[in-house]
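call fold target=Ribbon-helix-helix protein, CopG family
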Amino acid sequence: MPKISVEIPQELLDDLDDHVGDDGKFVNRSDAIRASIRKTLDLLDEIDERHGRLAEEDDDA
């Protein structure tokens, strides 16, 4: 799995950390960030689909 480096404002990191750990929904920060990216991409796909911007998938590919 590729690794990336990003700059995140401290306030976002603090908020993220509230959801990570034994009492949180996510095991670690990476898990939380991956889940957030997946959810955001799904939402963007839904928006694109409503606006007819998604390319049709080619079954022969």
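return ok
The chain is about 50% helix and 0% strand. The longest helix spans residues 29-50.
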